[in-house]
């Protein structure tokens, strides 16, 4: 695989995914017991937004201005978006950027690390050797953090159940494998077998090629996995005919009444990040909470 998230870092999908990820952690932290925060496809940990505009061999249009850049200067940020944005800015400042234009963007491992409590533990897995080497260097001196050169789906078998008996698992693959949704389904089945009460968050693109309709609708995932309460949210920023119209999150075992927090947040983000008419958000229960 030749996927490099650096070229997409800070785009609309990252803003959506990372804002919701932080809120999920905060909701689960309402209980004092520690959590395992498992990132199965962690990437390299940090991304240079200036380098992203250079591409591999030629200049390219950076994606962050239509994502992270849309939030700058707004005075109407919801609390969840404001917290996410401050985490990103604090990370950028720690990396030495004093310019108002963002330069260093934190990947999901650093955001999880930033919101972890002393009793929480972070495990980050990455299979691509170059990305893993960068990730390991990022967290070489961080306590309660492990970085492993490991397939993310193997990690669900190897790391669950955790000693904490509680976990938030982020499954965020690059979707370069044609059977990625089947791999996710099998991974969820194994993860839920090992930790039935664990919270699993799965990010996926909304494209025709990805085959979303066969994944998160009635005839898809529910016929493969015996799901507990499961929430699905789609964020659409482009028209239906676009190659990439948006992205989605599948949240298995969400915190109680998390949908009531997520609905207005996703609605605000859909409006703030819209790139063309025909966008919006859709939130529904694949399996309702009881």
Molecular structure report:
With 290 residues, this protein is an alpha/beta fold. The chain has one domain: Vaccinia Virus protein VP39 (Rossmann fold), CATH 3.40.50. The chain contains 8 helices and 10 strands. The strands form 2 sheets. It has an 8-stranded mixed sheet. Strands 2-3 form a two-stranded antiparallel ribbon. The protein is globular, with a radius of gyration of 18 Å. The mean pLDDT is 91.
CATH topology: Rossmann fold
Write down the CATH class. Alpha Beta
Based on DSSP secondary structure assignment, what is the total number of beta strands? 10
Uncertain runs are none
- Separation of the first and last Cα atoms: 41 Å
Helix content: 25-40%
CATH superfamily: Vaccinia Virus protein VP39
Under the CATH scheme, the architecture is: 3-Layer(aba) Sandwich
What fraction of residues sit in β-strands?
Answer: 15-25%
Q: Radius of gyration over alpha carbons? A: 18 Å
- Within the largest sheet, what's the order of strands? 5-4-1-6-7-9-8-10
Order of SSEs:
HEEHHEHEHEHEHEEEHE
Number of helices: 8
Number of spatially distinct domains: 1
List its traits:
32% helix, eight-stranded mixed β-sheet, 19% strand, globular, alpha/beta, 290 residues, 10 strands
Gist of the model:
The chain is an alpha/beta fold. The chain has 8 helices and 10 strands.
């Amino acid at each position: 695989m030749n996927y490099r998230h650096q070229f997409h870092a800070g785009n609309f999908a990252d803003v959506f995914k990372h804002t919701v990820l932080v809120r999920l952690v905060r909701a689960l932290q309402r209980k004092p017991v520690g959590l395992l925060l498992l990132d199965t496809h962690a990437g390299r940990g940090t991304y240079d937004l200036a380098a992203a505009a250079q591409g591999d061999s030629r200049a390219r249009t950076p994606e962050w201005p239509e994502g992270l850049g849309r939030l700058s200067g707004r005075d109407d940020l919801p609390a969840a978006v404001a917290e996410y944005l401050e985490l990103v800015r604090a990370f950028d400042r720690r990396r030495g950027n004093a310019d108002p234009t963002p330069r260093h963007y934190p990947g999901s491992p650093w955001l999880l690390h930033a919101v972890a409590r002393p009793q929480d533990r972070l495990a980050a897995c990455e299979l691509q050797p170059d990305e893993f080497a960068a990730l390991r260097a990022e967290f070489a001196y961080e306590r309660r953090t492990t970085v492993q050169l490991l397939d993310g789906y193997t990690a669900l078998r190897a790391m669950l159940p955790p000693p904490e008996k509680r976990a938030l698992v982020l499954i965020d693959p690059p979707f370069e494998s044609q059977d990625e949704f089947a791999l996710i389904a099998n991974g969820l089945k194994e993860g839920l077998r090992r930790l039935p009460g664990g919270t699993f968050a799965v990010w996926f693109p909304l494209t025709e090629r990805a085959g979303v309709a066969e994944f998160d609708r009635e005839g898809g995932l529910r016929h493969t996995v015996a799901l507990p309460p499961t929430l699905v949210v789609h964020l659409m920023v482009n028209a239906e005919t676009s190659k990439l119209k948006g992205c989605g999150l599948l949240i298995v075992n969400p915190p109680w009444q998390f949908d009531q927090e997520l609905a207005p947040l996703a609605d605000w983000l859909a409006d703030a990040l819209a790139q063309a008419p025909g966008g919006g958000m859709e939130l529904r229960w694949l399996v309702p909470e009881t």
